[in-house]
């Protein structure tokens, strides 16, 4: 364990937070930390070297870096196909270091004052056992929507009914037990072994139910029946206290440099004319899908701002613009496109030139878009994203769903 203490002078009530090391989980956890700090709590954040945020941007927090006891581990952190195994490894390897770290904070009253509780990402399921052992309440932050969390908790039921054994053959079938999702929207992760996903989710649910409370980055008016159902199933305090990003921006915790030239470019575009295209920090696509997306955008005739994250196109080595996009495509869209590696997304969505968002339906992106009133075109990739996309198109009716596999014609028509 390495120590990296800053800002530990606040001796008021303290909360210790433990984000999962992935962009879509770090953002809401830090936003929640800022909210708690704004109402008077001293904040400690325990973090890992994987996807470490820039802690110099948070001088008002105390940080504690913990290292994996198996320092040789090279996690394929959150590549879509390896998410479950990455999460399992993280839970095994960080249990010991986290416990040592938390025990130290709890026992050092002089430096840290009274610790009221820990707030841990739901995926860090081992933290319940540690909290119980050290006799400190644990509050869980689940960074997804409530609707998708309920779909995850229903996975054992979906398996029992037989949907999971026939995912491809029954893809278009309605899931009667969980309207309005279809079989293809069942929140699977990886490419086959759903048993390991179900085992992980069952552990997350069991350990969450043992906690003192459950926080969601959502709000009552957005998911009222889902929140009612969650409270019925979980019988514990549930706090729907989002949207966090309207209080504190995600820019401070961006793991990549946000390219501000995208805002300069948006400034030159007509009101509500631009389609913003981004698939978050984890999703990847193969070359065929990438080219279908590219030609769909070109054929739509609409101006677009496209985030092409390095590493997001399977098999691409260099910047995809130069390596994979044909010259004729670049020529065709040169007057009405801007391609960047990472954008200041919240600012982009709030920009008057943006009229639509083609998204992978990650929960942060979905919520950020909803809050700016930007209609969505959804192309979900894995996990919670399919359920979010179905809710966007069929429940909230604020967008369309291209479904999981799309061709250039779907894109072209969707944009129009
Ligand atoms: C992951 C999962 O994939 C997602 O399904 C889950 O709901 C949360 O964890 P991710 O895929 O990264 O997250 O998507 P999302 O939840 O949308 O979070 C992405 C974050 O990165 C957003 O806060 C967004 O504003 C930010 N972002 C994205 C940028 O700042 N710039 C970009 O160019 C793209």
From TrEMBL:
Gene3D superfamilies on file: Glycogen Phosphorylase B (3.40.50.2000)
GO biological process, one term: glycoside biosynthetic process
Pfam families linked to this entry: UDPGT
GO terms of molecular function: quercetin 3-O-glucosyltransferase activity; quercetin 7-O-glucosyltransferase activity
Keywords linked to the UniProt accession: Glycosyltransferase, Transferase
Native organism: Andrographis paniculata
Keyword Glycosyltransferase: yes
Name this polypeptide is given: UDP-glycosyltransferase
UniProt similarity note: Belongs to the UDP-glycosyltransferase family.
Coiled-coil stretches noted in the UniProt entry, renumbered to this chain: none
CDD domains according to UniProt: GT1_Gtf-like
